[in-house]
């Protein structure tokens, strides 16, 4: 079955960096687009960044462009989110997502807190 496991979250000061990882299993990883979402308390879940299968084209929310980078390692079945110049408003639970055959799969999420 499809499984997504996020890791790498934590507490970081404003201006700092974190790299999130999402280990995937149960499907042909390299063929599928992968997406990072986040949800802050009281807010709806929002798309942060996505990367296609194949050539790995990327897309970012305006709020993270130039600061975050999504990438994938198909040999390791893992998608990453490198987050630089973090701001307090980046504080949220970050989720990994894949759509497969009309179903949406989510990981358990990893908490990112940006605070001094």
Topology (SSEs and partners):
Elements: E1 3-7, E2 10-12, E3 18-25, E4 34-39, E5 46-51, E6 58-60, E7 68-73, E8 78-83, E9 92-100, E10 103-106, E11 110-114
Parallel strand pairs: 2-11
Antiparallel strand pairs: 1-3, 3-8, 4-5, 4-9, 5-6, 7-8, 9-10, 9-11
What does this entry look like structurally?
- By secondary structure, the chain is mainly β.
- The chain has strands at residues 3-7, 10-12, 18-25, 34-39, 46-51, 58-60, 68-73, 78-83, 92-100, 103-106, 110-114.
- Strands 2, 4, 5, 6, 9, 10 and 11 form a seven-stranded mixed beta sheet that branches. Strands 1-3-8-7 form a four-stranded antiparallel beta sheet, with no helix packed on it.
- A hairpin with a 6-residue loop joins strand 4 and strand 5.
- It is globular.
Radius of gyration (Å): 13 Å
Helix content: under 10%
Counted by DSSP, the helix tally is: 0
Give the percentage of residues in beta strands. Answer: over 45%
Average pLDDT across residues? 97
Helices and strands, in N-to-C order?
EEEEEEEEEEE
Cα distance spanning the termini: 40 Å
Shape: globular
Main beta sheet: 7 strands, mixed
Q: Stretches where pLDDT falls below 50 for ≥5 residues?
A: none
* DSSP, total strands: 11
Structural class: mainly beta
List keywords for this structure.
single chain; globular; mainly beta; 53% strand; 116 residues
Short description:
The chain has 116 residues and is mainly beta. The protein contains no helices and eleven strands.
């Amino acid at each position: 079955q499809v499984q997504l496991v996020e890791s790498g979250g934590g507490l970081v000061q404003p201006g700092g960096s974190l790299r999130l990882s999402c280990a995937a299993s149960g499907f042909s990883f390299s063929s599928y687009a992968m997406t990072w979402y986040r949800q802050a308390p009281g807010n709806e879940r929002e798309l942060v960044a996505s990367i296609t299968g194949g050539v790995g084209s990327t897309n970012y929310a305006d709020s993270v462009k130039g600061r975050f980078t999504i990438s994938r390692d198909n040999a390791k079945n893992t998608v990453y989110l490198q987050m630089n110049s973090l701001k307090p408003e980046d504080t949220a639970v970050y989720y990994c997502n894949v759509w497969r055959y009309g179903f949406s799969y989510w990981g358990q999420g990893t908490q990112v807190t940006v605070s001094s």
